[in-house]
Amino acid sequence: MLNERITKCFKIRKGQIDDLDELQMLFIETVTEVCISDYADDQIDAWISDTKNNVNRQRWVDALSNQFVLVAQDENKIIGFATLDCGNYIDFLFVHKDFQRQGVANKLYKEIENEALHQQSAYLTSNVSKTARPFFENNGFVVVKEQVVHIKGVKLTNYKMMKTIGKT
């Protein structure tokens, strides 16, 4: 069931390790529901399988512990999250399937870019899905190269994207 109201009152806060389970569920539901028009079922299953089966839990713990993590929260529900690794790599940027196109991704992205600038990064990069590519292009990113990644023997296309943000 889609969220009927436009979310304007969400807040952005720093992510914490206690958010792990909710972030993983948001990731799985978003990929499963939102990316379905860009990827086949077997591709989506491969993409989420390690998270769904808790195989890569340590990767998530490491991201929450070592990256700059922001969470968008509407009341008591996490509706999006973004992470910045090494000051210039957007590792995760996901918005809950029921809160798409409500400004959540834009707000998270702006805060991530501000943090990158604060860390004196000259550019941002990310490996971006077909689904997310238009969002990143709308925010000034360009495709550096199209990539084919192999997950569980399944090929998925994504894009290495980059944006200059600071003084070079």
Itemize the secondary structure elements and their pairings.
Layout: E1 11-14, H1 20-34, H2 41-52, H3 57-66, E2 68-74, E3 77-85, E4 89-95, H4 104-118, E5 123-129, H5 133-138, E6 142-151, E7 154-164
Antiparallel strand pairs: 1-2, 2-3, 3-4, 5-7, 6-7
Helix pairs in contact: 1-2
- Name the helicity range: 25-40%
Q: How many runs of DSSP E, i.e. beta strands?
A: 7
Structure class: alpha+beta
The dominant shape is globular
- Rounded radius of gyration (Å): 15 Å
What fold name goes in the CATH topology slot of the domain at 11-120?
Aminopeptidase
Q: What proportion of the residues form beta strands (DSSP E)?
A: 25-35%
**Main β-sheet, in a few words?**
4 strands, antiparallel
The number of helices is: 5
The top-level CATH class of the domain at 11-120 is Alpha Beta
**Which oligomeric state applies?**
single chain
